[in-house]
Design a protein that fits this description.
two-stranded antiparallel ribbon, mainly beta, 51% strand, 2 helices, 12-stranded parallel sheet
């Protein structure tokens, strides 16, 4: 009877969003965001818990919820998210952020988009934020600074 009950719940369990870990220097499901996005195991609506570390520029093709695993957050180069149903990013420091063609909610929470470059004796910012054609763009508790910011609903 227990076997039959468990077998009956398998389709339900397969439909639930998954939670995966990402860590650039430790045991985890994935070493970076790009490999998680490329994995057939990861689907729209899944959550990636990202351990502190430095991760390369990434383009996402799935609507994921990307959360810092703890309050220390994580560093990420440029992040591009396009043509996904919805998206969340919490606790990241990025050099650039592009959100494009997201009909649902695009949430950016507790993030910092900032990059400082030195040229001789002067410093200048080179970070950017672009948000185009997002159904519901939510920016909260975040710092966005740099040379370019563009938003079109």
């Amino acid at each position: 009877m227990i076997t039959l009950l468990a077998a009956g719940l398998l389709p339900l369990a397969a439909a639930l969003p998954g939670v995966f870990t990402v860590d650039d220097d430790g045991p985890a499901d994935f070493a970076d965001l790009a490999s998680a996005d490329a994995s057939p195991l990861v689907a729209d609506g899944d959550t990636l818990l990202v351990e502190p570390g430095s991760y390369p520029d990434t383009t996402l093709t799935k609507g994921l919820h990307i959360l810092a695993a703890d309050e220390r957050g994580f560093d990420l180069g440029d992040l591009v998210v396009e043509r996904v149903p919805s998206f969340s990013l919490v606790g990241a420091e990025l050099t650039g952020l592009t959100l494009r063609d997201i009909p649902g909610t695009a949430l950016v929470d507790r993030c910092r988009v900032f990059q400082l470059h030195w040229s001789g004796i002067s410093a200048f910012r080179t970070s950017f934020v672009v948000a185009e054609r997002c159904g519901d763009l939510v920016l909260q508790r975040s710092e966005l600074s740099g040379t370019d910011f563009c938003y079109s609903g």
